[in-house]
Amino acid sequence: MLSEAQFAVELGLEVTRAQKTNRRGVIALIGLHELQPLRMRFSSRVEHEIERQTAALIMRGAEPLDVLGRDAQGRFTLLLPETVVADARRRLTEVMETIGANEFRAGAEVFQLTPVVGFVEFGVESDARELGERCAIAVEHAELQLDLRPVLFMPTMRPLARPARPAPGPGLVRLLVSVPAQILITQLLAIAVPLAVYLLFDTLGVNIVPIAYVVVVIALLVTAILIWTEGLLAIRPKHPPRIPEHRYVPATAIIAAYLPNEAATIVGTIRSFQRVDYPAGLQIVLAYNTPRTMPVEETLAEMARADPRLKVIRVEGSESKAQNVNAALSETTGEFIGIFDADHHPEPNGFRRAWRWLDSGYDIVQGHCAVRNGDETWVSRMVAVEFEAIYAVSHPGRARLHHFGIFGGSNGYWKAHLLHEIRMHAFML
Fold this sequence. Notes:
Elements: H1 4-21, E1 25-32, H2 35-41, H3 44-58, E2 67-70, E3 76-80, H4 85-101, E4 104-106, E5 109-111, E6 115-122, H5 128-145, E7 151-152, H6 172-176, H7 179-203, H8 209-233, E8 251-258, H9 259-262, H10 266-274, E9 282-289, H11 296-306, E10 310-314, H12 321-329, E11 336-341, H13 350-359, E12 364-366, H14 378-402, E13 412-415, H15 416-422
Parallel strand pairs: 6-7, 8-9, 8-11, 9-10
Antiparallel strand pairs: 1-3, 1-6, 2-3, 4-5, 11-13, 12-13
Helix pairs in contact: 4-15, 8-14
């Protein structure tokens, strides 16, 4: 593995060669999200051991021309000559998934690490001195996601060390997500667009109404048959074993929150998790983002000081639930992990039941969500009925019909190693 100076020489030579031959390449910067906390916790010997194991994982699928180095901050630099962006993205994704799934060992310690990767393409017009800066910017953006996906530097990217953005004012995006706009768009798609299609074909002398009628009726019949099938299969749902085959193992609950919206309920949610009855120990991790400091943050800090099971993390720069969950993974200690929204209160025996499922061979279990205040208003009653239709009928029936389950985003329990390997993605959650 080359030093920073040696790698710079190799990069300069490769950029010069690319300029002469018009053969593009890629340079990648690979960091470990948990490296700084590990430096504070362990000796330099542990860092060197992690470096050795990580380098071996990076070079496991290396090609003959690849060059690996390390910069002054402890990040790995990887030169991929004569490699196009698509191939580089695929290879770097494989590297990240390999590192994310690996159990690192240093003495008696075993832990998993989260790689972050930024990369940039170089070619005829490239300046070797700027490539490292561009990779560093891409890594900053990768640090926000922690989703085991490499980030390609784009000209529009800027360093993230900047003042917080002001709250967005009225604009097109806010207008489109408003309730009146959603109602209008729904009516346009459901009524106006089909009517326009009918009229267009009518002006061409083609009557598509009979064909459309048959298609709609067939679609409704198929949907009805599937709904009835799911309902019948849900009459006798499958239950977990009464007693797990193996002992209960430590568990972690991750609560993802956006404080301006959930500041009023988050304390009650945490207290509900503190009341969970689980024999092997339950770690509680609150991962939240907020555009401004909230008074409830001091209350949360006091709760964390009073309860060693509780870990509170403010995820700077986060803009999604997925980013909060991914940031919390580096703090988890449980062998399985439950993911929850900030307004979800677990049943006291929920983690026991989840482990009985997981211990019987499953990797992910979706819990049954029920509305707590379902009898207060007619709206809450309707929502409660909808939730029961989804979680008591559709989900178990569909799982038996298709032999797979659905993770709904909350009240889902994952084996820890699997969640470390897969991560959450902001475009999905």
